[in-house]
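Progress against Task 2.4 (sequence-to-structure conversion) is shown through the following example record, which the project officer requested during the mid-term review.
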Amino acid sequence: MVIYADSSFLVSCYVVDANTLQAKAFLSQHDSPLPFTALHDLEVRNALRLGVFRGILTEEQAKAAAANLDADLGAGRLMRRTVQWPIAFQLASRLSERHAAVTGTRSFDILHVAVAKTLRLKELASFDSRQRALGVAAGLTEAP
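Structure tokens generated for the chain above:
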């Protein structure tokens, strides 16, 4: 396990959006499990609920996506990882101080990069260009 997928990448794996084909193609070439943290759990499930609120998803589609997520957790395609949050937040603060004014990254995007580094992962899978730029500045390789 060397690839960290941010929440938006994971959402593209469970609902049809502009990045779904690219996300699924990437996953078909990589069979190792992706780490899944408490941050992912909150963001991915909240994105599904927001999809319902915004009228992008039906309640049934959101429930089906959540069921597929749970199935992937059960099957080991996603692997729950515990994060040392104080360390991740300290690193996120340093990354923000050094790079946010240049990259324009938001707090949660910075936190995802910090979590990837805290978990000692090497690659970042994200469709967010600012987050990818921060990841590269932090020493991660762009995955997709």
